[in-house]
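Supplementary notes (optional reading)

For those who missed the lab, this is the record we used. Protein: Carboxypeptidase. Length: 507 residues.
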Amino acid sequence: MIRNILFPLAFSCLVASQLSAQTKEAPAKYEGKPSPSRILAVDSAVTTRHEVTIKGQRIPYLATAGSIPVWDDEGKPLAGVFYTYYEREDVKDKSGRPLVISFNGGPGTPSVWMEIGYTGPRILNIDDEGYPVQPFGMRDNPHSILDVADIVYVDPVSTGYSRPVSKDIPGSKFFGVNADIKYLAEWINTFVTRKGRWASPKFLIGESYGTTRVSGLALELQDQQWMYLNGVILVSPTELGIERNGPLDAALRLPYYAATAWYHKKLPADLQGKDLNDVLPEVENFTLNELIPALARGGALDAAQRKSIGARIARYSGIKESVVQENNLDVSTNLFWKELLRDEGFTVGRLDSRYRGIDRKTGGIEPDYNPELTAWLQAFTPAIQIYLRDELNYKTDIKYNMFGNVWPWDQKDNKTGENLRQAIAQNPFLHLLVQSGYYDGACDYFNARYSMWQLDPGGRLKDRLKWEGYRSGHMMYLRKDDLAAANDNLRKFILGAIPAKGAPAKY
């Protein structure tokens, strides 16, 4: 997830560990030390036992919640990184058991979103379309990928329970495109070593800014940790440092506009009567073959051409032609979210445009707030508090940061897309899966496809690159049908990216 409203916190550290057993009928008592306090346990572990039924199969598993240090060059702890680790208990030989390392984005958010919304064995209570319901709480996830892979969810520094050991530790150690990648690669090395998972096939999955993170980590792990991956999964990917300014940036939004207008029934009757999958190819072809060249010509377009292009943009976006022309054929996302349902008194969401909001006034050029984000925070925040304390038995009075202070974030030298390309080229075992929601306006699906095309401009890696679209938004898995389909596709991707025993990594 992407958000820039962040707040600072810092704590010192101490060490605690324990092993306890837990069932849903009789939660384990907390017997370890320290007692709840606002002191970070920089090296801690609390393990509980559970089971879940996935695809009709009973899966016993261990869940470990804890933190592992980040060290400086002298071996002194700089921070404690909080994680939750789910390990299938009835698999004794881990050498062939995949390990999935999971990150969310922000860059200032923890891994809560995919952990209790997507791939984990327990998910939050929401309705079938992803809206909050009460009472808040948790339920089993019958679609979790835990049947085929162990999973660790990682909270970068200042998110979740992760904290620097002191307020004197400079944020530059953690808060930047490349600093983030560097310390997390070191942390992954420590985790994999402690858990004895060097032989396991390894996968990175990231959502939103987490896709920037894992794209950079793929090469960093190879080059600096000598750790080679089998797969990288990008969920609602960012631009990955791939430039697309000017006419290209303006044009690539249109297919997302069309999908959202189709959902809200704002397209002309001939388009509205078609299935979404029949509408989008027409819009995509217009975008690539006509709109980009037209916008590149700018003021050189004659009146007839400008009129024709503006009419097509209006037809596909659901926005009045007069508004399109007033904005020189370039309707910003903020204006689109405000304008599409203006006549009905609603705005549409940024991260998931199926959601509607109500502003103070219908006038203006951007919405007052993001209705989807407020809904998600309402659902996820109590659920993760209940889950970590009552089910995973991790007791602390440290505030769980749904959005943490990682400002200022150093955006310079973002070459993560190119780094991912290099990692795939250098490692014949490495595969890529991209998952996008058609109604995501922050990291839209057509920009995700464009990024994947630019990762492989020569077309020589395309057999290992795959893109998938879903009829939901940024967190496509919150929709019940997409939760099932997306996890099934992850399962197929993970198993398909593991080579036959003894097969060499070579071209």
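If you only remember one thing from this example: Confidence is low (pLDDT under 50) at residues 1-35.
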